[in-house]
Queue: 4 jobs
Job 1
Amino acid sequence: MENQISKPKDQLGIKSYQAVFITRVYNWMALALFITGLIAYYTASNPQLFNAIVSSRLLFFGLIIGELALVVYLSRAINTMSRNMAIGAFLVYSVLNGLTMSVIFMAYTSSSIATTFYITAGTFAAMSVYGYTTKRDLTSIGNMAFMALIGIIIASIVNMFLQNEMMYWIISYLGVAIFVGLVAYDTQKLKEIGSRGFVNEEGMEKSAILGALSLYLDFINLFLFLLRIFGDRR
């Protein structure tokens, strides 16, 4: 996000930049969530496509690797790629994530998925408002949440072999707490980015894409951890 170098001089200008930028961030995030949900539902409803994904480890893990590669690519190359390329990569990522998340529609009941989605949306909205309005610096919370995230990733890998139920629930609740904190932190960070201004329209759009990606990841992961707690398996 190195193209955010032009800062508005007056308070009205700062608030205007923030409002426009944050609106774009949430619009892109909402679009990506809609695409992911639509693709996941369509894939789960299409036995041939779903079986092709889950029956082939090569294809399934290829999709996951592709998602990770796109996140790294977007994060590192956002300043050198064009606006259309950034938008395309972000939307392709939301499609790939929808394909892999189709497994959820087969593993959990539709009612529990819907209920968990509403809980996630409400929690996300509350923490976004808090992150945007609070005067407290949330940098320390963001740093602690990131370190804790590394910890639960390692713990999750270990528990794949141990299959310890107690560790499963600890990881689930910690995951919820971590991403609740990250939603507030990332929102505050994006508010600050919006206050700095942008060198041009393209710079704002690409920064909005990258901001939408961070909030999208927060939302998806918060949803997945809450689903582990509230979801009813088929």
Job 2
Amino acid sequence: MKKLSKWSVFYLSLIFIILYAPILYLVFYSFNSGGTMHGFEGFTLEWYKELFQDSRLLVIVLNTIIIALLSAAISTIIGVLGAISISMIRKRTLRDSILSLNNVLIVSPDVIIGASFLIFFTILGIKLGFTSVLLSHVAFSIPIVVIMVLPKLEEMSPTLIDAALDLGASWKEVLTKVIIPYISPGILAGFFMALTYSLDDFAVTFFVTGNGFTTLSVEIYSLARRGISLNINALSTLLFLFTLILVIGYYFITKRVNKSQQMGVK
């Protein structure tokens, strides 16, 4: 295995500094008793206490988590079934066409997607709020799940399915006992990706939220427009830590799943 050169290490270190320095700066000043983003005066948890005493904000956090979990679960189910269907298409041109349509929501600008959903929900008469946000999050998460699951399906040998069918298994048993266990790392990856995309999304959510319902990303934006407040730092810090916990959890879960699969193969 080739060792990284000094320039490669320097370049990687510089990239990580550029990426994480603003986040660390934000976290650092969330503990500033001075109430500003410059001139650290002393350590305090005042901004976090103030945050947890805000009942309206706690409701927004709950809304965000519910939307993220529901949209991730629904989009994972639909995305897995979609990926399996795409993998079974033998005609390459048709398969490529469907994949291209699947990727439209991934490559399209969020502003265009948000505006499209807003027009669509208005035409259908769907009231903007919980339902519109959930549907839009499910819609833009499905292509992500499909992209995460398809590579695992392509890795799987067709002989596994043929052998199961030859042994008398039904298609339902093939799906639940052969295909799903094999592609479970891709399913987990798709679920966690959908979850983090939903938690972090602002542009699409901004278009489809209505009066009386909002999510954390939109709330942080509205707080930032009112002026600098270290409540924003505290809220953003907690959101970053929550996302970090999800990433670490995903790493250990996939590691455990891969280990169990390797033991099963042996």
Job 3
Amino acid sequence: MSFVESYVQGAPCWIDLVTTDVDSARTFYSGLFGWSYDDYPMPSSAGEMTYSMGTIDGRNVAGLMQQAPEMVGDAPSWQTYIAVDDAEAAAERVTEEGGTVLFPVDEIPGSGRMTIAFDTVGAKFGLWQTTGHIGSAVVNQHGAPIWHELQAPDPAAAAAFYSAVLGVEPKTADVGGIPYTELFASGKSSAGIMPKQDADQPSTWLVYFGADNPDETATKAAELGGTVLEPAFDIPGIGRMAVLADPQGVVFAVMRGES
């Protein structure tokens, strides 16, 4: 188990699920990963809503929330948040580099400062400046985030954007015949970018969760009402993984890395 006490700028630090049926999602991910939940009230345009923190052994892993009425029509999805030292300054750089900031930086008292943006290839992501809540406090184990990967129509353009906004260093290598770009934050590999394999596929950040046995996890996901989009397969030198969708159709991956 890997505990995290802080994140450097440019490293993905948090994920949350915005979904059309949060009660169903809570049941699904609890059954799949063994999560417990801590619930917090959250104001919204429709009145008070609940933000659920999925936890492992009492440590925060991910957030879940019901899609707000004004978001009806948006596809439910997992959102990746990237750590920044100054949310306002990072948001300004997003705009300067051709991205779109969806709303001014918001203060969540005692937790952090955040906003949501689109990058230049159309993928949505969050910026998170901690003022108390660092993000995922446990990673790299079963049921916890293990990797974040951007599926992009133009990986080079995406890498240039995140490098300019966050100061990360992109490095590209051939992985299984596909050019794969890793983003290094303070010298540590923290996320990846790969070309979209289907022109109709949306540009999006894909969240990977750790799985002790990806085959068994995929089978369990199907039993819980999810869908196995890609059965477990091996990538030499990387690990074994599967691509799944929850009952609301939200795509995610599970992976056991090679030790």
Job 4
Amino acid sequence: MSALEKNLLEVDNLRVRFPTRTGVIEAVRGVSFSVGRERLGIVGESGSGKSQTGRAIMGLTDPRAEVSADRLQFDGIDLLSLPARERRALRGKRVAM
């Protein structure tokens, strides 16, 4: 893949889980996709995890949530290990939903 064809966003096996008193709720289960320079629209039924997927990518998930992925990268930046301050700098300017 050439530099011009590089994916801007890589999401591989994204999971978002919420621990509750009655057990764990899996809001997002194994979502994978990649996006080049185009815009992406996600459609699905109410409660299917669309918003939680976007929130996980942007770092806006509730602090009690468990977010994991085999890969969650934006423009080569590992979003799972990115400090909160740097992630905030991406929001609105480079990443939005």
